[in-house]
Each structure stands twice: as C-alpha cells, then as structure tokens.
Design brief:
With about 325 residues, this protein is an alpha/beta fold. It contains 15 helices and 12 strands. The strands form 3 sheets. Strands 3, 4, 5, 6, 7, 8, 9 and 12 form an 8-stranded mixed beta sheet that branches. Strands 1-2 form a two-stranded parallel sheet. Helix 7 links the parallel strand 6 and strand 7. Helix 2 crosses helix 13 and helix 2 crosses helix 14. The chain is globular. It starts with a helix and ends with a helix.
Length: about 325
C-alpha cells in the first residue's frame, strides 16, 4: 500500500490544531504557586478550591520556590503566592513590593516564630541555650553517624531561612563543631520522630505554627533577644552572601501573608479583595501541617474537605 505523505501532513496539522484548541479550552484562569512546606501546600489548594467556589475560575497549582514565584508574579506567569514569610524575605519584598510595585502583600498576616529547638533528651543533657551549641564537648551527644561530631538540621535547601540559619551558625560559632544538614522537611520530621522514640538527643531549626509542638515536648533554645543592629544580611543575589553576612541574636518576630501580582489585582479586583479577607490562623496552619505530614492527606484532598467544612467562612471572604 502506498503511503500518502500529504495525508500524513494533513492529519498532523489537524491533530496539532485540535490539541491547541483543547489546551485553550482547559487552560487555567490563574496560577497559584505552591511552596514545599505543608501549610503552604494546603493554603495554595484552599485558595484554588475557594476561588473556584466563589468566582468560578479554575486555578493551576504549581510547586515553585518563592523567588521563582515572585519572578512569575512580575512577568505574568504566576498570580498568587500563599505564604510570604517575613523577615526571611525582606530583600525580595523590598525589590518586588516596595521598589518595583509588581507584587502586593495582603494586609492580614499569621504570626509566626523561628529559632532552634531541642528534643527532651538533648535538653536534659544540657543543650538549652544557643550558647551551648558552641561547646564541642556538649554537642558530641548529637552525633548520629559515629564520626564524633554532632549533626543539626537547618531546613530545606530552597528555604530562605536555611541560608539565614547557616549565617547564624557561623556567627554564633557552632558551625565549627556541628555538621549542618539541609534536607526536605519531610525527611527531617521523620528523623525527629525516630529521635523522640529512641530518646536520641537532637537539635534542629524549627518554626511555629507547626504540629511538632503539639505532638512532642519540644524545647526552644534560649537566645539573646533580637537586635536589628546585630543582623547584617547581604542580599542573596551575591553568591558569597552567607559568608559576608552575620546574625548573632534571635530572629525578629515573624509572620506570613498572601502575596499576589499587582497586575492580577487590576484584572480581578474582586479576587484581590477576597485575598485580603482570608483570615487563616496559627491554629489553622498547625492543623494543616499535622494533616499533611502526619496523616499523609494529599493537599488537594485536604483543601476540598476544609473548604466544605468552612463554607460560611469562605463565603465571608467573598462577602457572601
């Protein structure tokens, strides 16, 4: 049988056109960035389901690092970022919110805390303050791999707080006698569960709201109160920013809030007003992290149930 080359080209063209039309039909109305920590993942999907419920718009949820999300909000490929942490992202906020005016931060924020925590076993053996971590004799109890040197989790590789915790470790001095570990939070929390179960001393970077404070008797290490004059952070656009920076006191009071593109707000002022009314609480964030990390509920499934259970609250955000 003779092959029809012209027909093949025609079929290919028709198929491509059909595919393009199909993509156009199912294209999302907006894009919500999703961070790689549980409360951010849950909130991204809660916003997706809520916006569909209240405004009939379909949102794609894309896992993106915060800097990529901010760049996306500037160039039009991202519309909403569900959790923008302060003071972690002050340089990013200065650039995109204050100077360029391409991103808006919602006025409502969820109060938060960041610092270093210890398991009960570590606290009982004398690790109760940040100064204790600079004593190599004391931190030997944190050794889990037999090399005589303790380990400490700083955070996920993509978190802005992880780099700042490395700066703090350098400035306080405990970077010299501890192996500083970066890994995804899921891995770190699994290690924490094992440490608690086996009474293994462990010290790690921590933040609240988070379920670990309800699940385990975690001890927060004491630090000198925050002093802005003792925090000198170089912009992360400098590849040597960690070594050039210093921070020798506790973190400043933290919060996180929704960010959205200024251009998106002009196109959809009703949704921007909706985002300004979202009033999630520390208790909400704690429940999210517990459901996703402990109960292993998929973020989208959690969001569907949450919106159904909180229908009147969501309607209130939309003034219904």
């Amino acid at each position: 049988m003779t092959k029809c080359v012209a027909c093949s080209g025609l079929f290919s063209s028709v198929f491509a056109a059909a595919l393009a039309m199909s993509s156009a039909v199912f294209a999302a109305d907006l894009v919500i960035a999703m961070p790689n920590w549980p409360s951010g993942q849950a909130t991204a999907n809660i916003l997706k389901i809520s916006i569909a419920k209240e405004f009939g718009l379909n949102a794609d949820v894309e896992e993106l690092g915060t800097l990529l999300a901010f760049n996306g909000m500037e160039n039009g490929t991202v519309d909403i970022e569900p959790e923008v942490w302060q003071p972690n992202l002050e340089n990013v906020i200065k650039t995109f919110v204050t100077e360029k005016g391409v991103v808006v931060l919602a006025k409502r924020g969820v109060p938060a805390w960041q610092g270093i925590c210890a398991t009960p076993a570590a606290a009982e053996k004398g690790l109760r303050s940040i100064a204790d971590l600079s004593d190599p004799e004391r931190t030997k109890i944190l050794d889990t791999d037999g090399d005589g040197k303790g380990e400490m989790w700083l955070g996920a590789p993509t978190w802005s707080s992880t780099g700042i915790e490395r700066v703090r470790a350098n400035t306080y001095g405990y970077a010299k006698n501890l192996t500083l570990v970066e890994s995804e939070e899921e891995v770190a929390m699994a290690g924490l569960d094992i440490a608690i179960a086996t009474n293994q001393p462990l010290v790690f970077a921590c933040y609240a709201p988070h379920f670990i404070f309800d699940l385990h008797k975690i001890v927060r290490l004491t630090e000198p109160p925050h002093d802005a004059s003792k925090w000198k952070l170089v912009g992360a656009n400098d590849p040597l920013w960690v070594t050039k920076s210093s921070a020798s006191t506790a973190w400043d009071a933290a919060n996180f809030r929704i960010g959205y593109a200024a251009a998106f707000a002009k196109r959809h002022p009703d949704i921007a007003a909706f985002l300004e009314k979202v009033d999630l609480t520390p208790e909400d964030a704690t429940a999210m992290s517990y459901a996703l990390e402990v109960e292993r509920v998929p973020p989208l499934d959690y969001a569907k149930k949450w919106v159904a259970d909180n229908a009147k609250r969501v309607d209130g955000w939309a003034n219904k």
